[in-house]
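New to this. Please check both lines:
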Amino acid sequence: MTVRFASILAALASALLTLAGCGSSADAPPAACSTDKTWSGGDRGSSLMHPGGNCIECHSSGGEGPRYAIAGTVMNDSKDDTNCDGVSGVTVEITGANGQKITLTTNGAGNFFSSGSVPTPYTAKVISGGKTRAMSAAQTDLNCAGCHTAEGANGAPGRVFVP
């Protein structure tokens, strides 16, 4: 009985470690937040959830949330960590390959998203306080956080942030 109990405990510990590994850095408390506000609701569904996180990856993997064509977060600083609240009320203008514009406004956590079709390659710009920051080249990846991380990836200068 002791051997069986030990193997059950080992299996349980392994399962818990696996589950912990499934959580991403999006579940870790942020180290640097220029807004001093953070998301602490875990994976509880909300349009304010996981600012700076990989929206498209999670919202296309068969979970409960809505599917997005394009999504991201406008941060206050290019180095803000995932789960730092971004900036609300910022305009994000997406221009598809067909010339059609989609205008989005960031919510209370700085998140923006659309389930409408976005023909690629597309361009994007962030408009706030009469200032504009535009992407330097047209893109085909609609997952903004795929490149716009605190560290920057694939040539991105860090987070999407206010001009």
